[in-house]
Specification:
The chain is α+β, with helices and mostly antiparallel strands and 181 residues long. The chain is 38% helix and 23% strand.
Length: 181
């Protein structure tokens, strides 16, 4: 899915004529495109931080039982998931800027992170977990909220969150344990 295709769906849902294939834009059209691209980035960051994390792995060297996240270049870590040395999983304690453990040496760190760069109008989003319609609903919810059209913002936001909850919990049953009250 491309940012341009997400914007095309947004423009269609807004009831406007699709002007994205034009050679040049008017100033109002350019403002709309730049705001929608900004919202695409905001919505994607929200999705990967709250619903569907981007999971990466890196080979790291733990020194004196500590590893600072700043040692990873161009990575914005949300939280560490797993630390492994060979086939052994190492228990660690996570802090804001580092992890501490009872191990020193080479290891593999698995972590959730934010995307390293923002998307531009001509970029592709290579995340197959997120449908284009869900992204468009989130972008429109942000756009209408910024413009203080709260009824439309609420409508698109509820569609966005319901669709993301379905994607996040697909195939898993959601049961709460019975409690004594």
């Amino acid at each position: 899915m491309t940012v341009k295709s997400i914007l095309a769906e947004c423009i269609q849902k807004m009831g406007l004529d699709n002007f994205l294939d034009n050679q040049s834009y008017t100033s109002d059209e350019q403002k709309l495109v730049s705001r929608l691209v900004f919202n695409v980035n905001a919505v994607y960051r929200e999705i990967v931080s709250a619903y569907l994390p981007l999971v990466e792995a890196a080979d790291v060297t733990v020194t004196d039982g500590e590893f600072a996240f700043s040692n990873l270049v161009n990575v914005r870590i949300l939280y560490p998931i797993r630390l492994e040395a060979g086939d052994r999983e190492i228990k660690f304690k996570s802090y804001a800027t580092k992890i501490k453990c009872d191990y020193s040496g080479a290891a593999k760190l698995t972590y959730a992170c934010l995307p390293s760069t923002d998307f531009a109008f001509s970029d592709s989003i290579n995340d197959v977990r997120i449908p284009e319609g869900v992204m468009a609903s989130g972008v429109l919810a942000e756009y209408y909220f910024q413009n203080k059209v709260f009824d439309l913002a609420k409508s698109f936001d509820s569609d966005f969150r319901v669709a993301l909850a379905r994607i996040k919990y697909r195939g898993r049953s959601m049961f709460l344990k019975e409690r004594r009250w």
